[in-house]
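Journal club side-thread
Mid-discussion, someone asked how the predicted structure for our own chain would compare to the paper's figures. Pasting it here so we can look after the session.
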Amino acid sequence: MKNIYRSLVAFLSLIISLFTSAQITYSGFSDVSITLKSDTTTKSVLISNLLEDRVGDVSPIIGTAAWVDNNKKLQCRSLLSFDYGIMPRLIRPEQITEATLILKPVEILTTETVNGMQYPKFIVRRISEPWEDSMTSWLTQPGSNIDDEVIKSVPEHKKHKTVRIDVTEIVRNMFRYGNNGFMIRYEDSLQTAVFLSQWFASARYENEKLRPELLIRWSLPANIMSYPNYDIAELSRLPMIRTNTSNQQPVNSMPYIAPVPVVQQEPTPPPKPKQDNR
């Protein structure tokens, strides 16, 4: 009986610590926002066709670059994947109202110059195939879905400021079809006579405060008061997270306790994406 009581206390403590910041809002929904911070479960790789067979899982930086050498177009790309734990089992894709990829720039000394040209946009694309960071090189990089991407432009005068990228639809599709992470890259068709690049701290960067983060915000009906029917040990394997407080005022003082469990059904297979492996 004591063991059952202790397990129940541990369960309630975990749930309350994860979700006490959510508040019942005027619309009758609770907003919950969680920031996933890079840790040992975060996969992070920098690859280049300059060294096609080189695995890039220990790189302290990620980002993208493009240049020409001896009439050969060279590129750097990055792969980044956060561990969502059991979140896809708790949250429906349609409940996600915002997902923001937060990248902190780092300065790398290069001969880069844009010479007054419009600064090139880079792409954040959903990776559509599984990959392992310790085995991924340019030659073994996974495919990505060119129909599921966002384009980001960083002006020269803001290049050294934190970059926030709206990846809401990409994350929704990760919850639908599987989480293989993000690819950061330039367009293959980009023509440049200079060295172009945008660099960020990776999940392996020494300063933990500069490592990538992913903010996910979702809404749930405010009158849900039931606990999810999950094993306590399984809940304890959630990734390290920080829960932010909602800015909206509650309609009443009743606290939001926990989301209703989502009964997962087999997802509808996505349409065959246009893959880009190189």
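Post-session note: The mean pLDDT is 76.
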